[in-house]
Amino acid sequence: MFFLVGPTAVGKSEIAVEVALRCNAEIVGADAFQVYQGLQILTAKPAAELRARVPHHLIGEIPLGEKFDVARYRELALERIGGITRRGKRALVVGGTGLYVRALTRGLSELPAGNAGLRREIERMTLAELQARYAALDPRGMERIDQKNRRRLVRAIEVTTLAGRPFSEMRADWSGEPVAGAADGVALGQDREELYARIDARVGRMFDLGVIEEVANAAAGETAAQAIGYAEIKGLARGEMSIEECIRAIRQRTRRYAKRQLTWLRSENIFFTINLTDKPLSEVAEKIARRILAAAPDNGALGGQIES
Predict the structure, then answer these.
(1) What domains can be seen in the chain, in order of their start residue?
(2) Is the pTM of this model over 0.70?
(3) How do residues 286-301 score in pLDDT, each as one tens digit?
(4) Which among 156, 171, 149 has a CA at the least distance from the CA of 227?
(5) Cα(61)–Cα(79) distance, rounded to whole angstroms?
(6) For residue range 82-108, what is the model confidence (pLDDT) as tens digits?
């Protein structure tokens, strides 16, 4: 198994297919929203022609209204990876959701199961009340969590209350069983100005391709509705903002998300990093493929310095 990770819009999908073709590999997605059925444009799923060239797994598989979490992802990913290996192929895990990648490289600590009564009580709170409650329970976790994400705040409060210890401590533990040899991989990077320009261009293309109609006809559940742009476009449909304001808001959220992804990759420091700026796709794919083919199955971590 080999990881190909990086921030949103960096170009992972195209490079992953070129690498997979060179290495007799199949692709396993590691994206929290591409895993859902529908919302092809909004979540920037790999194009149909890319998916036709190489088998992709955990892309467009989960019903849009279904709840999905990291534990379920790990279960399904290990299942798909096992199947790929049994077919005599390599598994190439591709994505930018750090929590999903870490669940495979470090395992998961045991978290308490949900409590329906407590969950209902917490869900009745306003966003401000959730923020205040979690800040009191877990100040360190409050600094790290997306403070405007109701779903994550609710779960963090629930877990902290049931476990009797801060949620941030449990997430830092990662004491579950990691996947053997799972630290081998490449992190794709890019000069920030170029990455932000790619993000802006992608958001513009989304609207040209009909993302407004796509979202208008979608009924996402609690988890899928957290996809960047979903709430903004629903607000646009309700007349709460202009299309210019909507595009600007999505670009801003996506840039912030990319910044968090880059911060996470730097903090992990377990993958060899390639800066894509001024590098042809074919050259990058060939370099990654050579790294995969040269690596022994039990090489372990192959972290390296950032390339300029």
Answers:
(1) 2-108+176-294 (3.40.50.300), 116-173 (1.10.20)
(2) yes
(3) 999 999 999 755 433 3
(4) 149
(5) 14
(6) 999 999 999 999 999 998 999 999 887
